[in-house]
Amino acid sequence: MDTILNIRNLSKNYGRIKALDNLNLEVKRGNIYGILGPNGSGKTTTLGIILSILKADSGNFEWFGGQFGSNPRKKIGAILETPNFYPYKTGIDNLKIVAKIKGIKDFDFDEVMRLVNLEHRKLSKFRTYSLGMKQRLAIAATMIGNPEVVIFDEPTNGLDPKGIAEVRHILKRVSESGRSVIMASHILDEVEKICSHVAIIKNGKLLSTGMVGELLSDNYLIEIGAFNKEKLEQFLDDFEHLNKTRFMNDYWICTVDKNTPVESISNKAFNAGLILSHYIVRKQSLEEEFLTITKN
Q1: What is residue 128's predicted lDDT score, i.e. its pLDDT?
Q2: What's the CA gap between 251 and 258, in Å, rounded?
Q3: pLDDT > 60? residue 165
Q4: Strand ranges for 112-158 from DSSP E
Q5: Distance CA 64, CA 248 (A)
Q6: How is domain 220-294 classified at the architecture level of CATH?
Q7: Are the folds of 3-215 and 220-294 the same?
Q8: What's the first-to-final CA gap in the chain, in angstroms?
């Protein structure tokens, strides 16, 4: 069974606000699946519904092809909000409390602490943990009971660059251990670095979905600046197969059709009497693809 989660036509309203609008998603086994969208796009609502915390107004979803009946939660670990642990208890004692709540016995707590790089601090009190360590302990808590799927809502939110890198590495290790990962995030760079697949949503609607690499356009991006900005703008407007996307730091970022020889742009700029102050050719990132998809 390849499909672990099938979401069909989910809709959810909060009064006049349409949080989800006929959302359809399919998550395959082994995916690190990112649900990407701006704040208020419906990410957390989606996770709340598939975890049976919220009720959809219409549509449905199915875990594991119905293999585990109407109660598949024992196969799923999740963090939706900042987790609450006892500050005066050690990391491993907090995990034992989670296990007791879940009704799980004979669990290898040392192994899961190793997975999240906290084995050396397992006997330290939770209140002595850094924010990144607290988030890693929360990830460890989702692993109790050996779930097949783990779900995270904004797992790197509020962390410094070191903490973000640690969480990114751990989520990849979780996936490599044979589990599927579903994460919601508005941080494009993290989705691009962590996820194998992504769904882009806005205002509760699915705008695009697929493998991260396939979602990226084959077109080139060109950063181009000139000392005469007005003349440059006119030049770019007249250039066929080139589209200005946004202006930043004294240069334009433009998309160029993949079949257009990029060297012809600088040559034509020179022939037009433009003195370029900035010229870089590169491939499009997920962030830029996201901005293109969600700009309307």
Answers
A1: 96
A2: 21
A3: yes
A4: 149-153
A5: 46
A6: 2-Layer Sandwich (3.30)
A7: no
A8: 37
Closest to 166 in 3D by CA, of 208, 223, 121: 121
Fold type of domain 3-215: Rossmann fold (3.40.50)
Q: Are strands 17-28 and 76-79 parallel, antiparallel or unpaired?
A: unpaired
Maximum average pLDDT range among 43-52, 152-161, 282-291: 43-52
**Three-class SS state of 109:** helix
pLDDT tens digits, 179-200: 899 999 887 778 888 888 989 8
The DSSP letter of residue 240 is T
Domains of the chain, residue spans: 3-215, 220-294
Q: Model confidence over 4-33: pLDDT tens digits? A: 999 999 999 999 889 999 999 999 998 999
Q: What is the pLDDT of residue 150?
A: 94
**At a CB cut-off of 8 Å and minimum separation 6, what does 38 contact?**
186, 202, 294
Closest of 59, 2, 53, 55 to residue 26, by C-alpha: 2
